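Sanity check record (used in CI):
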Amino acid sequence: MPFEFAFLDWLYQFRSPVMNAISIFFDYAGAHGEIWIAFTLLLLLFRRTRKAGFAMAVALVLYMAAGHFFLKPLFARPRPCDLNTSITMLVARPHGHSFPSGHTASGVAAAYALWLQNRKLGAPALVLAAFIAFTRLYLYVHFPTDILGGAVLGIALGAAASAIANYVANHKEKQRIV
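Expected output for Phosphatase PAP2 family protein:
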């Protein structure tokens, strides 16, 4: 953990008003998955993107079950801002434990599920998820390993969600043929 604090302290020195504002915005917009939920609902509205939206919805539900309700309490890791109280917080201390990063895991899960369904829409979503993950470090609310764990979990859940969406779509198609 000393390396992780060293990295966060190094990053802390680069704070700027513009990056502060952007990070605070994404903290609030992603606190309950609002960005990903809104994008999911938008995709569900159109027949062409409905399967991708369904995959994203499944990914978000899987994250809540696996990450938020199971892994966070299991690891019960304190946040870096709780251990180093000398830093100036830009946002309110997040509720819950640090590992895995919920912003990262849910964002990567939704974006990766989308990418597996639709590369054109999924690529910018993955970039957004990566940027949101970075802001968690910038805000000093997660350790780098929280972000890494969230990303790995997100990839696994996104892949599972995409597979579920494919299965449901293929099952519906087979029923329509019969």
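The chain has a mean pLDDT of 93. If this sentence no longer matches the regenerated tokens, the check is flagged for review.
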